[in-house]
Amino acid sequence: xxxxxxxxxxxxxxxFGHLTRRWNPKMKRFIFMERNGIHIIDLKKTLECLxxxxxxxxxxxxxxxxxxxxxxxxxxxxxxxxxxxxCNAFYVTERWLGGxxxxxxxxxxxxxxxxxxxKMANDGTYDKLTKKEILxxxxxxxxxxxxxxxIRDMNRLPGVIFVVDTKKEQIAVAEAVKLNxxxxxxxxxxxxxxPIDYPIPANDDAFKSINLITHAIADAVMxxxxxxxxxxxxxxxxxxxxxxxxxxxxxVLEDEEQVEAISEKLKQAGLEESEPE
Length: 277
Known about the structure:
277 residues, flat, Rossmann fold, 3-stranded antiparallel β-sheet, alpha/beta, 7 helices, 8 strands, 5-stranded parallel β-sheet
């Protein structure tokens, strides 16, 4: 359930934008005022946008889609990783590799290589290699894990991506736009909100602001998963009941066919029981 309040946003400092000279005019509709050379974001609009984004994520996850959290700036990395893991979603906290979405087939090959290296370390392959060869492979593993660790189990494109600082993550945004993947993004006063399906106007530099909004989106993922399970369980029960009913019909049918077959054999042998007089 969505439970963020205006007070929460205010305490988190979500209303502090950038210097007025660094603003993007397209953010005008989200700006409340200017104070001491800094734009102040309208938190009422932030709350409205956040709630809309929250519900969108719930619906997308409820439909069985995956979520990818993206945030590579220093103050966002740990938050993104922790919240994504909390809601069992995928994440990118290091450099965004070009083609991570648009060339996903190649990315999957790199993920497969990472898993193969890990398998080599456990199946005795390392015992047949020299220390130099092992060191080289381990360096490759560490490099791959650093960049791809958060998406190692992502077997398909996500149904939605959540981005902290859409200006910094413009490559990720561009790839999602190209593939028509919905984007939920924190947009500060220096960002372009137009490519973002669900823009959340907020301070994308302050730790507390990033944490509050990312936490809310993670909650949305968890709510969507719970709703999905609640819908799937009755369907599974109904399917099992139908399967059991079908099985019973088949068994009854088979029994009737067996009786008829035995009766036919008795007739042919002239041993069919006569009706009592």
